[in-house]
Amino acid sequence: MSPAETALAASPAAAAAAAPNAEGLARDGRAERLALLGLASPALLLVLVILVVPVAWLFYVSFIGADGSFSLENYERMINRKSYARIFYTTFEISFLTTGICILIGYPLAYFLSQLPPRVANLCLITVLLPFWTSLLVRTYAWLVLLQKSGLVNEWGISAGLWEEPLKLVHNTTGTLIGMVHIMLPFLVLPVYSAMRAIDRRYLMAAANLGAGPVRAFWTVFAPLSLPGLFAGSLIVFVLCLGFFVTPAVLGGGKVIMVSMKIASNIELFVNWGAASALGVVLLVTTLVILWVAARFVALERLAGGGH
Amino acid sequence: MRWLNRPASETQVTHGQRLWLYILSGVIMVWLVAPTLIVVPMSFSDSQYLEFPPEIWSTRWYDHYFGSEEWMAATVTSLTAALLTMCLATPLGVLAAYGLHASQLRAGRLIFVALITPMMVPLILVAIGAFYVYVKLQILYTMLGLVMAHTVLALPLVLIVTAAGLKSFDMNQEMAARSLGASRARAFFTVTLPQIRFSVITAALLAFLTSFDEVVVAMFISGGDNATLTRNMFNALRDQIDPTIASISTIMIAITSGLMVLAQLFGKPREGG
Asked: Which family does it belong to (chain B) (predicted)?
């Protein structure tokens, strides 16, 4: 027993006096923790007023019919009208294709970067980060200029003899896909890269030591270990694609209509809040369900932070 | 070419066998950077149809941009909004991140998720939601409304970056300061804040960029005298390919690159320091 404990044991009165004190301290501690939590309240309040309340209101409006009473007509319209089915089809088609192409070209790039010595890799990462930080509008504009009929891509392609007539590369699905893959690629490469960096290289040595060739070691050891990163990256890309607006609006030239664009035109052109909000609710629920599933596998911060 | 036959990794694959990977990655990296960079020389072309390389170099489109009252007003709006957003989102976010980190309560986790929702909700919903509220509050097309909406969008980034900084900070140092008589606030400002400053600076720069580059929300809630640069650019793009946009793009690329350099200089602890 330490001298202090001996002293306590020797004097029951002192022990009894310590107990209420401890209770008081615990109470103070709780109060302080709650007060600390209170520091988040200004931010929370702002998010509540600007985001949560309006979205809740959109939810409500989506169930109000043209006559002002409760109805499901806004949702029925989505099911019954062919034009809406088309929009959902286009949105998912573009999102799947973009995600697929991003995986196909992003995974090898992330693998390449993860194999470099850290200093060189950081230098090469600038090529991923620069577009990541550059305004999305600027990059969309750049593609518009490059892909137009008299643009650089057509000019070079024709002078190199690859094709004869100027190809229609923009104001259609092709242009939209090129632009979207370009914008989404960093969102895939960054999480995949950080997952690959975290893989212990000694596993590969062990695999080689046990007789696996490079290809087999890659597919049976490295690839499975990189899957969580790939999964996280693909989901971010997919979810971002679902809600995309600017790039399809500019590069799609009115031929590629995604859900976000339909929501915007419902408000801007037709002032139809019912139709817009029902579309919004479907878009939001889809997005949140995907993110919720994703959060079971990877931390939300990593999903949201895009890996940096 | 002996290098080609050297082993490239733990699995004894040679550089030669992976040559395809190097070439493919090189092409992708060029593809990632080239479109943005090619806009820069194009913006100095004298022609109506942006040429590369320009046959006659000129600053015609820059003159057009700097001479246009409308573009200048939009630029001022965008810069003001971005600065104010930075000044609002950074303290709010840092305060929240610190509170959640220090309280160590379970509820903190929930609040954290609530505060990063603006990142998860599709932008178009934020846009039309804010549009609706602003009509009711009569702050549509005002700087106040724009800054509030952009602050909500920037908060998640500030929170995530600051929280990451706090994770590697030893809170016992703050305890030490307080046991020596410093108040909680004083301990935070003199002990904690200086040590997480790199995260805070990065967070502030991110908040600035979030606002400066934002298009969709600005399209709905900025307008009139307070139309942002991106809003006007987007509208101009829908109509035709205006070469003035190339010069504005170049300026935006310069601003982004400048901020990136700042983040590199001040947003990271220096080695050996």
From this structure: Belongs to the binding-protein-dependent transport system permease family.
**pLDDT tens per residue, range A94-141:** 999 999 999 999 999 999 999 999 899 989 998 998 888 899 999 999
Helix or strand (DSSP H, E) at B175: helix B172-179
Query: Domain A82-305, what fold?
Result: MetI-like fold (1.10.3720)
Q: How many domains does chain B have?
A: 2
- CB atoms A208 and B104 under 8 Å: no
The CA distance from B13 to the nearest CA of chain A, in Å, is: 6
Residue A53 and residue B126: Cα distance in Å, rounded?
11
Residues across chain B: 273
DSSP string over A234-277: HHHHHHHHHT--HHHHHHSTTSS--HHHHHHHHHHTT--HHHHH
Q: What are the residue ranges spanned by the domains of chain A?
A: 13-62, 82-305
Q: Any CB–CB contact under 8 A between A123 and chain B?
A: no
Is any Cβ of chain B less than 8 angstroms from the Cβ of A44? yes
For residue B114, the chain A residues in CB contact (below 8 A) are 44, 47
Size of interface A-B (CB pairs under 8 A): 268
Query: What pTM did the predictor assign?
Result: 0.89
Range of the domain at B260: 68-266
Q: Which residue has the higher pLDDT, B97 or A83?
A: B97
| Residue A64: φ, ψ to 5° | -105, 125
How high is the ipTM of this complex? Answer: 0.89
> CA separation (Å) from A25 to A133, A137, A224, B69, B98?
48, 55, 50, 64, 22
> d(Cα B208, Cα B78) in Å, to the nearest integer?
10
Greater model confidence, B13 or A14: B13
Task: State the nearest Cα–Cα gap between B181 and chain A, in angstroms.
Answer: 17
Cβ contacts of A182 on chain B, cutoff 8 Å: 31-32, 35
The structure tokens listed for A30 are 């709780």
Cα distance between residue A204 and residue A217, in whole Å: 6
* B242 interfaces chain A, CB cutoff of 8 Å: no
Which of A139, A283, A287 is closest, CB to CB, to B36? A139
B20: contact with A, CB 8 A cutoff: no
What CATH number corresponds to the domain at position B190? Answer: 1.10.3720.10
